[in-house]
Amino acid sequence: MAVLGQPSDRDGAGSEDGSAIAEFVMVAALLLFVVLAVLQIAIALYVRNTLIVSASEGARFGARADAAPGDGVDRTTALIASALNPSFATDISAETTTTREGVRVVVVTVVAPLPLIGPIGPGDGFNVQGRAFSEEQVSAAAGPSQP
To answer: Strands 126-133, 91-98: parallel, antiparallel or unpaired by DSSP?
Structure first.
């Protein structure tokens, strides 16, 4: 029996009860997905930039006149291990190459995983290089200094 002033179940007025909760859950899930995607891109860019800076610093360290390219690998490994997870510093190599113009450069190459879920990801996601002018060619060209 319907009372005057109160809707009955047949009116359909009570059919939207609880719809705000369902809408909130759907919008919140979508918003959470977008926030996590942006956060994951930020983590990947941070790791990439850190690897590039570490490889460049390692190349500069290995290009000094009193150092070998292997010293650059050690320096790069230490920098990556201190800034990121040490698992990012497992595949690092260095070599001395000559450009087309005849300039010797030290190249440090880092192959590291792409962080897909936090710091976890596939093994060969990033392949970055750092290059530096080898100081040996300057000291060799200058020769011994005469007073």
So the answer is: unpaired
Exposure pattern of 80-115 as b/e (b: 16+ CB <10 Å)? beeebeeebbeebebeeeeeeeeebbbbbbbbbbeb
Could you list the beta-strand ranges (E) of the chain: 91-98, 104-112, 126-133
Residue with tokens 């113009």: 101
Tens digit of pLDDT at every position of the chain (147 positions): 555 666 555 555 557 777 888 899 999 999 998 998 888 888 889 999 999 999 999 999 999 989 999 999 999 999 999 999 888 888 999 999 999 999 999 999 999 988 877 656 665 688 999 999 998 877 655 655 555
Nearest to residue 51, comparing CAs of 119, 99, 97, 105? 119
What's the predicted TM-score (pTM) here?
0.75
